[in-house]
Task: structure prediction
Amino acid sequence: MTKRFEGKVALVTGASSGIGQATALAFGREGAKVVVAARRVQQGEETAEMIRRNGGEATFVKADISSAAEVESLMRATIEVYGRLDCALNNAGTSGNLMPAVDVSEQEWDSVINTNLKGAWLCLRHEIALMVKQGGGSIVNMSSVLGLGGTPIGASVYVASKHALIGLTKATAVEYSKQGVRVNAVCPGFIETALIEVATNAPGAKEQLIALHPIGRLGTPEEVAEAVIWLCSDAASFVTGHSMVVDGGYVAQ
Result:
């Protein structure tokens, strides 16, 4: 049976764990050659090795996407190793520290925005340029349900960054659709990751988080990865500028 991404090259940032890792593995399983990008070398190498153990092809590139120079090196390495770029998930991000908006320092603001928004933009401009040159491609930006609404938990900078990322997604989708490049976003609800485990270690905290989702549980990284894979596939060829919610009903209520 033909795999959906046979002969294609996929780049995933923030691929050392969680949704990024699950998506990198899914691309590899579907036949793509995967560029695994992350700041954490050991975990990133492990993701690439997992893909290879499953019969796929993968290369790890260390990259901090908030750095223009490192993003440029990442894109150069992608072309040097595989010669093209067909799909990309701009997933690397940070939640920052939770605090009321008036207590956020300029340093904290810059830290979150430089990764979640500027970093995605730095990746996008290179990815789009490469895809336009070769005749097309598909990009997914990782937003959040908190990119669609506010929250009282003290995440104002994160919320701002994820709202802005949806705007960037729509703008680039409209600008480059005629050149064969599709740009979409995925907005996950709260997902079972190591970060969530740490954030909900107080008694009753996880139960409160689950209660926000009508489906009655948190999501899995693999469920979000499936949405990304579909958006990047030919099955979504008429979909661009879209923000796909994968949230167990969080936003619907």
In short: The chain has a mean pLDDT of 95. The CA atoms of residues 132 and 179 lie 6 Å apart.
